[in-house]
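1st attempt posting a full record on here, be nice pls
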Amino acid sequence: MPFPFYWEKDTFKNMSEKENNFFNEAKNFNITTGTTIPLTPNNNKTSYLTILDLDLTNNFNLLFWLRASANAYFKKKDEITNLKNKDS
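the predicted structure (as tokens):
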């Protein structure tokens, strides 16, 4: 399972022009740091939750519940999708 990571613009080296523009635009809104949490409910899907301006990498209880919530959401979404496909 991928680990959450804390970031700031200087964390990333050798950024493309597009990536650099993204961080510069974010900086215009005072977004300069954050924690990105990979949510991987199964091997087929990955999504990410980014919480801005906080380092949550050591808040294990919060990370556990965020991942558990994502897993429950994707499981229910898959069940509904499968039911819809079965009915068609």
